[in-house]
Amino acid sequence: xxxAEPVIKKHRWLSPVWLLPCIALLxxxxxxxxxxxxxGQLVRINFEQGNGILPGKTxxxxxxxxIGVVQELALAEDGRxxxxxxxxxxxxxxLMRKGTGFWLVSPKASLTEISGLDTLVSGNYINVMPGxxxxxxDDEFDALDxxxxxxxxxxxxxxxxxxxxxxxxxxxxLYFRGLEVGSVINTRLDEGDKQVVLDVVIEQRFEHLIxxxxxxxxxxxxxxxxxxxxxxxxxxxLSSILSGGIAFDSPPDSPQAERGQTFSLYKxxxxxxxxxxxxxKVGDLPxxxxxxxxxxxxxxxxxxxxxxxxxxxEVSALISPEQAFRITQPSRLIWESVNLSLTGLExxxxxxxxxxxxxxxxxxxxxxxxxxxxxxxxxxxxxxLNTEDLSxxxxxxxxxxxxxTVGSIRTLSLDASxxxxxxxxxxxxxxGLLNRARFYRAAPLQIQAxxxxxxxxxxxxxxxxxxxxKLVQARQGPRIDLLYPDEQLALLGSPxxxxxxxxxxxxxxxxxSLGTPVLYLGLQAGKVSQLRVGQGEVRIGLEIDAIYxxxxxxxxxxWKKAAIDTHIGLDGVRIxxxxxxxxxxxxxxxxxxxxxxxxxxxxEDREQAQALVRPxxxxxxxxxxxxxxxxxxxxxxxxxxxxxxxxxxxxxxVIFQAQLEAQYAERFLxxxxxxxxxxxxxxxxxxxxxxxxxxxxxxxxxxxQGASKHSFPLSExxxxxxxxxxxSPALNGLAVGSPxxxxxxxxxSVSQVALAPDGGEVRVKVQVEQEYAYLVRENSRxxxxxxxxxxxxxxxxxxxxETLQSLVAGGIAFTTPEQNxxxxxxxxxxxPLYEKADEEWLGWSPRLVP
Length: 850
Fold this sequence. Notes:
This protein is mainly beta.
């Protein structure tokens, strides 16, 4: 081994054992970092007051996401504010930098908007708006009173300057042609404190409307101007009236406005002086400064201040730029002011607003000067009508076609021969109606009643005083330039019509003589020209004028017109007197009816001529207050009446002899028809048919379907729905009208109470309304719930009242088992009426299907 070389071994400088403490150290650092991240950050926020902020509940939110919660509230060091200590989530630390804004969000409601409604559920919260990213971190802040100007505003920001703020404030809306396009987000003073600056935001979709020459004006509240020219009232929308508003225009030829451009805010449209000026030739009309110019009721301009020159008044007007194209050479300006005449009150709205100028726009070449006239020019098709009488007409009265004014009466005149003439003007757009036109007087109210029904025709209110003319088109034939008394004559009229002779027969000619007038709708249509005596009758020859001749035919009925017609009955008193001619010479009237009978006969009166009735007998145990003249109705229409009331020979029944009009009788003189007395009902169950207190009771009929029948019972209650009979040992507070209850809901009523023929029980008839009939089954139970039921003993007591109505008026309750309900029942079935309900019944809760 001597001389052997030594072996040198190098050891590692770090033993693997040291890996364990290193890993432990890394884990500890990671745990500390995780704890730091999850711990969050405490910030101090100074509020003016702490109302609505609750420690542990009030959250801090950013973009709707909770990023922290309030830990505690304390008084600030200066003692004037409230310091809120809040813990911010670690993920939101980056938001806590200088300039970050905090404000409390709570529910608010104003006239223009409602905000913060979500806090009604979640509670108040503090909203956060981070400062600029370049700002350093911070942990103490002063809270804002509300959202900063422009918060979440999307659109273009503009600046308006004005001498004073007026009634415009933050939240006021911006309108373009009445459409809301933006709002005011901030108000402030400019740098020199000389003018007010309004920061407004225009929605992105409306940014293109802002032009370099755009002008803004205030439309806030209600602006009024009281002067000799009248009352001028200018308003915006309801929102602008209450909270302020701003309108603006958008000149089409102006370039887009530059970013950041400041505009002036004018006090109103007139101060903005936006529009195109035109000259007006007004003559002697009392035009005043500020008078509006209207087109279809909308203001499109105003009269400028009037100047006096050597040539008189110089009048100009400012027209809205959007409407300036309507100022054309064919267009006309019409003076409008209040006009009270026989036709009514025209332009009544001008009583408060004062006179105005209306533009009648006609497309054409643009003009700079327009003539102002006091009335609309007469244009259209002119024609002349001949008539026998001009009474009831006036110049300016309208001509109607199907309720629409198509022309007007221009003049009323008499020609050299004394013939009455009417000159009309029909508007150009309706000239096509004249090919087969007929004309007749527009009677204010015309009623024609015959067996075919009742026809009521009314005219517009303008015709009631000033008269008017109606136009109707005949199915064939040319236009006839005559004014007829009514539509029927107008349609039957013929240019070749000739007088007609017509013969009537009568048993005697009392009140009839040669020359006796023949009348149609109160107008003389002819006269009696001949009288002849035949075998037991008188023949009367009538000479009918040509204009009325087409009316006479097989369906014409004639009757004597009484000098004084008096009618007294339950339906009232009617007295009708004729004119002087009928008082002296009598008269004959006629009318047409599709159900005419006895043609060629002269009847004694109108009712006899047009009466075609069928007899009917109604039988009752007593007279409930009906008499001769009491009406029979179906669905509100009179179809007959009571002619007489008498007892039957055995004195056991009352018989009402009635008459039904023939056109209705067939359906009501059949088996299954019913007749029910309708009279006023007053009680705890309700009030019904109060009109019968004034008009009298009547009989309501229901049609039948079966064999012919002429005698029916008169029922004193409406027999509709399900009719049942309940049997009880005693009445126990029940009466007619007592309610029938199901689950304490009224589903019917007691219609009749009576003793059994042998007197052994009380039979109560109840009527279940049709919609609830399915609730009654074979196994249903009925019990009396009238008054108060008490059970009092030594250990206590109970007092039970079903309903207030049953306490006062009595009542019956029923229910149906849940199981084995049984089949549905029909009218006429009987059930026992129990004195009280078993406890088992009260627990039933059936579910029944109609």
